[in-house]
């Protein structure tokens, strides 16, 4: 069902209707601020539900007998015999007899479907809008999360199935939210709005310590009941407050709607009417370079997200609460860092210190080449736990520079088709999200306490994260691609001039520089 328009396209006055006191009070809150909070909290909740099992599985599974590998040195950083030590392994009542291989399938099955649903998300959102796609996806993920305790005790195959459904649903969320930005958020505000996507960093940062606390005091089943219930509650709030466009919002002020229209080029209705140039996207080297380079960034990122808790348990010997706290804390830092990288990227472009293309490449190199080298360094620091954690935190924090780099570049090259291009790029790079844990668990099977085995994992991670960046260095660009515009949808000079005036761009700047600055403001930080 298509939502009734409260405002018509010529900015006439709203349809008269009686409004209650609550509406009159909260109607003063800008609709864009509400949308920001919904986006921020939505990704926070989404990543809570997708990552809860990463640490819960540490407590779900029985302690496996340690296999002694000939000619190998066991280099864990705790004393097994000292059962009273705060960092010695603790039995949290794990009853599931899952091998390392089964655990890797369960953790990676989420991402099998995640990459499949990217293109689906881009297409469906173009047709039916973000509200329904994002909302239904979150609801499906929440219901699956609540079902995992029952499925775990029935058969691991059902857990894999539930994780597959969660992955497919979560894969719809990114293209859906990307598509919303173009017709809701004015150009001067897009950098700030895109920081709402970093709610996922807070989600990870909260989930790990929360899960550690719940497991230690209430058992691992409480983890899934908690995150699933939060997800369902969020869906209710989303249903009541989210709308696909300013024209369908029941309480937006005429002044706010006019401001949005004057500072956005693509409207909701025109975006729905456009045909996606899939052939040109598939032939676009800049689009491919974004997907390939981000493959390397995702690989190293998921070593920290998925394999990190296992490393902290098996090598550093942290108990579940300390494990959760230290696994999650770097991602809280990441949120703060993402705002800083956003600010730096904005200044470098708007002050003409660097071109938009060079800023994107600088941030991309910082987000994957440096973390790749740092993760390798961790394996050579031995049991100097304080130094290991400093390097660990630094690497995870640097990864967020990608949101002012290659991922922001999606809107640079195709502002009219950000959702479909994101879907294309994520179909490529999110394969790393399941290959990374699969390769790690395969290499570590039976050798989780072997520092040398982890060093091999980190060598591969460093190579992949660094080598994939070369593709972006060669073919990455900040220029809008010709296929971004349909023949009948070329940019309107008067509207572009108005946008440039609103963003306070100096008239003396050349036309190409104006376009570059406008796009820099439009896309400095994405996911």
TrEMBL record:
Pfam families assigned to the protein according to its UniProt record, in alphabetical order: MFS_1 (PF07690)
Subcellular location: Membrane
Membrane topology: Multi-pass membrane protein
GO molecular function, one term: symporter activity
Record GO biological process: monoatomic anion transport
Transmembrane segments: 21-43, 102-121, 164-185, 197-216, 222-241, 285-305, 325-344, 365-382, 388-411, 423-444, 456-475
Keywords assigned: Membrane, Symport, Transmembrane, Transmembrane helix, Transport
PANTHER family (alphabetical): MAJOR FACILITATOR SUPERFAMILY TRANSPORTER 17, ISOFORM F (PTHR11662:SF77), SOLUTE CARRIER FAMILY 17 (PTHR11662)
UniProt name for this protein: Major facilitator superfamily (MFS) profile domain-containing protein
Organism encoding this protein: Phyllotreta striolata
């Amino acid at each position: 069902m298509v939502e009734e328009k409260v405002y018509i396209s010529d900015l006439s006055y709203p349809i008269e209707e009686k409004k209650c006191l609550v509406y009159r009070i909260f109607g003063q809150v800008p609709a864009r601020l509400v949308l920001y909070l919904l986006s921020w909290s939505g990704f926070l909740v989404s990543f809570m539900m997708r990552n809860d099992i990463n640490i819960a599985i540490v407590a779900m599974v029985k302690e496996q007998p340690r296999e002694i590998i000939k000619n190998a040195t066991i280099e864990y950083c705790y004393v097994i015999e000292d059962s009273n030590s705060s960092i010695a392994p603790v039995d949290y009542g794990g009853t599931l007899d899952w091998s390392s291989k089964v655990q890797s399938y369960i953790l990676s099955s989420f991402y099998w479907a995640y990459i499949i649903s990217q293109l689906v998300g881009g297409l469906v959102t173009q047709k039916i809008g973000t509200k329904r796609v994002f909302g239904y996806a979150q609801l499906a993920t929440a219901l699956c999360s609540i079902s995992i305790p029952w499925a775990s005790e029935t058969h691991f195959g059902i857990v894999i199935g539930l994780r597959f459904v969660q992955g497919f649903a979560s894969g719809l969320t990114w293209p859906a939210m990307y598509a919303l930005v173009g017709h809701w958020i004015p150009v001067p505000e897009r950098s700030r709005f895109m920081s709402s996507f970093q709610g996922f960093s807070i989600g990870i940062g909260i989930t790990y310590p929360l899960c550690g606390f719940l497991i230690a005091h209430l058992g691992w089943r409480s983890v899934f009941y908690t995150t699933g219930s939060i997800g369902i509650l969020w869906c209710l709030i989303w249903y009541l407050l989210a709308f696909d466009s300013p024209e369908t919002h029941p309480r937006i002020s005429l002044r706010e709607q006019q401001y949005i229209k004057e500072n956005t080029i693509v409207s909701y209705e025109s975006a729905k009417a456009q045909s996606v140039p899939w052939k040109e996207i598939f032939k676009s080297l800049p689009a491919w370079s974004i997907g390939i380079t981000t493959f390397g960034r995702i690989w190293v990122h998921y070593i920290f997200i998925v394999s990190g808790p296992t490393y902290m348990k098996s090598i550093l010997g942290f108990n579940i609460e300390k494990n959760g706290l230290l696994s999650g804390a770097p991602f809280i830092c990441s949120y703060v860092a993402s705002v800083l990288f956003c600010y730096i990227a904005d200044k470098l472009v708007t002050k003409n210190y660097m071109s938009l293309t060079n800023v994107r490449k600088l941030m991309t190199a910082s987000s994957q080449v440096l973390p790749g080298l740092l993760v390798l360094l961790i394996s050579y620091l031995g049991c100097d736990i304080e130094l290991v954690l400093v390097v660990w935190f630094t690497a995870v924090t640097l990864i967020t520079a990608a949101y002012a780099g290659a991922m922001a570049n999606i809107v640079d090259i195709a502002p009219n088709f950000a959702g479909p291009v994101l879907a294309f790029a994520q179909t490529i790079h999110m394969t790393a999200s399941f290959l990374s844990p699969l390769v790690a668990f395969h290499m570590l099977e039976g050798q989780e306490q072997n520092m040398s085995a982890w060093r091999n994992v980190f060598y591969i991670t460093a190579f992949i994260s660094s080598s994939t960046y070369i593709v972006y260095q060669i073919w990455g660009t900040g220029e809008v691609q010709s296929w971004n515009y349909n023949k009948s949808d070329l940019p309107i000079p008067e509207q572009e001039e108005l946008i440039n005036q609103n963003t306070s761009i100096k008239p003396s700047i050349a036309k190409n520089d104006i376009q570059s600055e406008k796009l820099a403001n439009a896309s400095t930080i994405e996911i």
